[in-house]
Amino acid sequence: MDAIDLRPSRAGSAPIRVSFEFFPPKSAEMEDALWQSVQRLEPLRPNFVSVTYGAGGSTRQRTHATVARILAETNLRPAAHLTCVGASRAEVDEVVREYWDLGVRHIVALRGDPPAGVGARFEAHPDGYQTSADLVAGIRRIGDFEVTVSAYPEKHPEATSFEQDLDALKAKIDAGATRAVTQFFFENETYLRYVERVRARGIDIPIVPGLVPVQNFRQTASFAQRTGASVPAWLAARFDGLDDDPATRRLVAAAVAAEQALDLVDHGVRDFHFYTMNKADLVFAICHMLGLRPQPTQKAA
Ligand code: FAD
What we know:
The chain has 301 residues and is of the alpha/beta class.
């Protein structure tokens, strides 16, 4: 039994599937926090867990080490994020081969942000992969990887139009991507309308909603601003006045996130990707609301 169906929905009773995103830790303390979160979430049997790649490839070693530890110490299936930034094709290919040799079979392929930061003009490395679609094709040439890519319900800030954004998504799929995970959003309508547009464009791969539980409203709002995701006034209003009241903030955060996820279930969504920020509690609670229950886990010796 994967999940208890708490909310009969228009989608029928297909099981809920979740995936969790982590970032590689910078210190021993952060490593402990990450590991506690991984261990808490592992019994929910996610479809996969992914580990991000720092801007400009700055976490290459740490991403690799985190993925390696997940493979060695858990039953989880890790997906390694990889970007085109600041590296030649040969260097990126070497990373991909290292992952293959380690036993990783899933890569989240991204262009990455310009080294000068979001908003700056992106210039590919002269010998590097020029676009995320190029990277997807390169990864698929090296091994039979599952490749997940990004999708932007509010369109990517650099896209000149929705059409161009959808063309970019289509190019990644034509190159071999089989799943897209979205940038986070707070208005479900935005996501549902986007999926309609994607389907109308003839794209039929899963477009998995990426949800961010609001661990800290100010941080989330500033992150959203940098990534082009909008923060509705009603969300700001819910957290208004709670800056010095972490206990209430957490309750509100859980309610907001559960409301969003359950509404998506009502609209037939069964796959969810959670940006965990390496913190398990809120995500665990939302998964519980979605009907997931911990299952025994044991790493084969
Ligand atoms: P793409 O899908 O290649 O392009 C996004 C859009 O930009 C396209 O739709 C296209 O319309 C437009 N575009 C691109 N180039 C041009 C151009 N030259 N002119 C006009 N329009 C253009 N970043 C990291 O550094 N590390 C990570 O681990 C990471 N993980 C992520 C995971 C998810 C699920 C998401 C949604 C994003 C992640 N990012 C990560 C952020 C991502 O790298 C940035 O959003 C980056 O700016 C775009 O990369 P992409 O692969 O999403 O872009």
